[in-house]
Amino acid sequence: MAGGGIPGVGPSLPAPLKAAVTRTQSVWWLVRARGKLDDSSGLRIIFYHRVSEDDDPLAVSPRRFRQQMEFLANAGFRVFGLPEAVALVEEGRCPPRTIALNFDDGFRDVGENALPILELLGFRATVFVPTGVIDGTASFPWYSDQPPLLTWEEIVELDRAGTLRFEAHSVTHPNLLLLSDAESRREISQSKADLEARLGRPVEAFCYPAGLFGERELRFVADARYRLAVSCEPGVNVRGADPLALRRRQIDPRDRRLDFRAKVAGGHDKPLPLRGLYRRARYGEQHSKGPVNPRLRASS
């Protein structure tokens, strides 16, 4: 992993520290909820980056990924891609134990290692791709040796097959907060145009790189006619939530069985103390916690 790069586009906390914080939160959930899964209404979105044996803080091993997906299947979870899962929420038809599964960045090992497991279990997922990085005109600055990505030919073929559906993740994967208005708008709108030209269908969802966005980015995403957008803020998504600021929880390589169970059961829905201060100090202004724009609300 390269140590430099643009702030906000790669891993943040050191992996051992992040794992320790996660474990503490998981144990507290175990004590508080006695290990029971949350069967209340609402949608939890979980996301991965890579499924690989590589020594990479973004890579979950294929063995652990299989165990996690099998846990969902055995526990009665239904696993969808983002648009279909959100549609259930908006229509008031989202049953307990519904998960939307995402993969960020378009690494080839998702097709090689995750896809066969998803096909076996009948799960579907959304993959967010930065179009310029797929083109090779940009790269992820946190890697000194970037892992292989899916090619455009593979993306088109997989999208048509149906288990994986591809949506937009900017052009170059920058910290949008650091860009000018014109640059931020272009990253958001051009990635949609690029992907629609390749896939031959409307692209309806956007993923803020590193989950970083402000009121400006919300406006640009709405202007670009996206229907959905996902952040990296933890929490459960309920009917009436802002569809352009959906909440997700990342699954990390060091997550043990308890951590994964806690994350899908609601044990990590609340942000850690001082998380907002840390992210503002590291990355810049975060999204407003004020009222949601009514125009962006799902019908109630």
Question: How would you describe the overall organization of this protein?
Answer:
This protein has 300 residues and is an alpha/beta fold. Strands 1, 4, 5, 6, 7 and 10 form a 6-stranded parallel beta sheet that branches. Strands 2-3 form a two-stranded parallel ribbon. The chain is globular.
Distance between the termini: 45 Å
SSE string, helices as H and strands as E: HEEEHEHEHEHHEHEHEEHH
User: What is the level-2 CATH architecture name?
Assistant: Alpha-Beta Barrel
Question: How many β-strands, per DSSP?
Answer: 10
Question: Mean pLDDT score, rounded?
Answer: 88
Q: SS-based structural class?
A: alpha/beta
Outline of the structure:
The chain has 300 residues and is of the alpha/beta class.
Q: Helices, strands, pairings?
A:
Layout: H1 15-33, E1 44-48, E2 50-51, E3 59-60, H2 62-74, E4 78-80, H3 82-90, E5 98-104, H4 108-121, E6 125-129, H5 131-135, H6 152-161, E7 164-168, H7 181-199, E8 205-207, H8 215-223, E9 228-230, E10 249-250, H9 257-265, H10 275-283
Parallel strand pairs: 1-5, 1-10, 2-3, 4-5, 5-6, 6-7, 8-9
